Amino acid sequence: MHPARPQVLIVGGGFAGLTAARALKRAPVDVTLLDRENYHLFQPMLYQAATAELSETDVAISLHEILARQRNARVLLGEVASVDLDRRFVTTDLGEVPYDFLILATGGEPNYFGRDVWESVAPSPKSLAATLEIRRRVITALELAESIDDPAERCLLLEFIVVGGGPTGVEFAGALADARGGLTRTMPRTEREHIRIHLVHAQSRLLPTFAEDISKKAAAQLERRGVILHLGRRVTEIDSTGASLDDGSRLEAATVIWTAGVRPTPLARALPVEHSHGRVVVAPDLSLPGHPEVFAIGDMALVEHDGHPVPGVSPAAMQQGRAVARSIERTLQKRPREPFRYWDKGSMAQIGHYHAVAQIGRLHLSGILAWAMWGLVHLYYLSGLRNRISVVFNWLWLFFTRQRATPIVTSMHHPLEVHGKG
Questions:
Q1: Which of 52, 92, 361, 372 has the fewest CB atoms within 10 Å around its CB?
Q2: Which one of 159, 171, 237, 252 is the catalytic residue?
Q3: Do residues 370 and 296 share a domain?
């Protein structure tokens, strides 16, 4: 590090922040990447870790390892408490960290729409800890169902609810449906047909950001896999034994998974700037109005494209990370900045093994071709050669043997007892 050089502080090691750090590799600056975790998490495949298709080490890689060869970058493990925009420093649990340029990329967190108490009974796969907790609950439910004789309790343990019909919810429901055979392969009392998966979505069709024909194909594929769809129904209550819906019906299940919403982190919401639905309103160059040295990117920022918000997906976050790196370099060169232009590369969602849907402009694909494209794209964006090799090996192993990663849990608590219902 060279104290005389401009100091770029990046808060958040997700797709946006990490891409910005790497894009500044040849810039005459020193980069500090600050995150409360020491790893980069590949969120698009977390549901595969939750269903024991991949291990947690397949979807997480050390930030130190990624930036090891970047001589102008370092990683700090800490959490930001506040940002002083006027004095140009952030307050962390490590102390005050000054900056010349600040890139805020803190991502998002599950949005329970004012019912945060649901988080304890319906975890959301937005973090590695939550993903591992979901996997523990899924495997524990199956293990207990194998050993319990009470028919009513067995039925409750073998019912699963996924709330939210966006890409994450659709992928999670499809993965659970396909996981039934593999996870119960060595459980003689539990057949895959005993396990029922419900997908609840408040809107009338799945994947509302996709074209209608894509949504219909996704719904048909999920139903073909045995997923029970509850469309146009909103969850009004969740507890340890299931969920209540706004039509007065009740779904009983010991395991509920929440994928229905994302909101910016508390740090983003606390910034003394203009917000829209909790997201930070940024200038065309992604800087904070009145603070050209500070940028907000990724899920925490409201960025518009053709009059619509840029979606909170990893390709958009990475494009923003590269854009702010260019803006910093142009500022140092005393050249005017350019406004951010989003390139929509399309959208994809996997719906179980060997099937996916893809929308790339006017091109709509589904089936095994879309699935192959999905796999290649995700392998391309996955960081680390070791991770790529491991993921390919696990996919091939599953393809040829139908066997998943060993479904081991280190602590097995009865899901009803954990929440005081046992």
A1: 361
A2: 171
A3: no
